[in-house]
Specification:
With 150 residues, the protein is α+β, with helices and mostly antiparallel strands. It folds into two domains: 91 residues, Conserved hypothetical protein from pyrococcus furiosus pfu- 392566-001, ParB domain (Alpha-Beta Complex); 44 residues. Helices cover 47% and strands 11% of the residues. A four-stranded mixed sheet has the order 1-4-2-3. A hairpin with a 5-residue loop joins strand 2 and strand 3. Helix 1 crosses helix 2 and helix 4 crosses helix 5.
Length: 150
């Protein structure tokens, strides 16, 4: 398998997989683009030895929307044709099967909201109850908040 290297490639050199079963709405492509603008291109596009996209079709569409010339890629060359096809499906399907820990999600969202409120107005503070929950949940041992695998 070897080491993985990130190489920036021209978008025009990348070839979408013609039988990609995953679709992306225009709204989702805009959302992906907004995430790329906010956080950077943090998830490289996976390609094969022929520069065909294995994973990252939506990211490439968003990069085109943002008028980027290049995107980070990782070339995957150890998979057979059948393995590539299976991986393309599995990569998309496995993400759909993930769940959420709603308690941790609520804590994270409350914390982000509090941070945003502090950024825009020091006079705005989260409600006392929200602060108490956030502080209590921050103190919980990580082992108590184990990841639930479906």
């Amino acid at each position: 398998m070897g080491n993985l290297s990130i190489i920036y490639r021209k978008i025009s050199d990348l070839k979408p997989y013609s039988r990609n079963a995953r679709t992306h709405s225009r709204k989702q492509v805009r959302q992906i683009g907004a995430a790329i603008q906010e956080f950077g291109f943090t998830n490289p596009v996976l390609i094969d030895e022929n520069d065909q996209i294995i994973a990252g079709h939506g990211r490439v569409q968003a990069a085109k929307l943002l008028e980027l010339a290049e995107v980070p890629t990782v070339q995957i060359v150890h998979l057979s044709g059948t393995q590539k096809r299976a991986y393309i499906l599995a990569d998309n399907r496995l993400a759909e099967k993930a769940g959420w820990d709603h308690e941790i999600l609520a804590v994270e969202l409350q914390g982000l909201l509090a941070d945003v409120l502090r950024l825009f107005s020091p006079a705005l503070r989260p409600r006392t109850g929200a602060r108490r929950c956030y502080s209590r949940c921050q103190r919980q041992d990580h082992a108590e908040r184990s990841v639930r695998v479906q």
